Amino acid sequence: MGNPFVHLDLSTSDPAAARAFYGAVFDWKFQEFPQMQWTGIVVGDGVGGGISASPDPAQPTSWTAYVAVDDVPATIARAEAAGAKIVVPHMEVPGMGWLGVFVDPQGATIGVWQSMSPPPAPKAEKKAAKAEKKAGKKAAKAEKKAGKKAAKAEKKAGKKAAKAAKAPGAKKAKKK
Length: 176
Hints:
Elements: E1 5-12, H1 15-25, E2 29-33, E3 38-42, E4 49-53, E5 62-68, H2 72-81, E6 85-93, E7 97-103, E8 109-115, H3 123-166
C-alpha cells in the first residue's frame, strides 16, 4: 500500500557544522562513511537519514526526502514523463540499494530509494508466518505419532494372528 518515506538527506555547504547543530538539538547519533563523503544519521526507531556536502556550491542547503520504490529506473522514467527534471537518474549505493533524484514541476526536489533487501514484513505477516510454521510442526508431529500408532497396532495384530495360529485346536493347512 503506497510508497512510504524512508530516508532524509541534508545537503549543505558545511556538514561538520550541521552535525554539531543537529547533534546538540536532537538525540541523534552519527556514523561516518568517509568513502562516500557522507554521514549517516542514526535515530533508532523511525526514518533515519544522512548529511553530505552539496555537490554544487550554488545549491542552497536543503533536506531531500526519499520515498521507497520497487524500481528506481521505472519510477524516474514515470517522473520524467510527468514533467520532472531528472537530477540523478540511477545511482547504486554499494551494499545498500539504489537511488534517483528529481525535481517536480513545482520545483520541489524528491528522491526515490530501492533497497537491495526487501523491507521487513509487517508484524501481522510475521505473526501469521510463525503460526503457519508452528501448525506445520504440529501436523508433522501428529502424523509421526499416528504412523507409530498404526505400526504398533499392525505389530499387535500380527502377534495376535501368530498366537491364534499356535493355539490348540487351530486348523493347520494340509500338505498335498
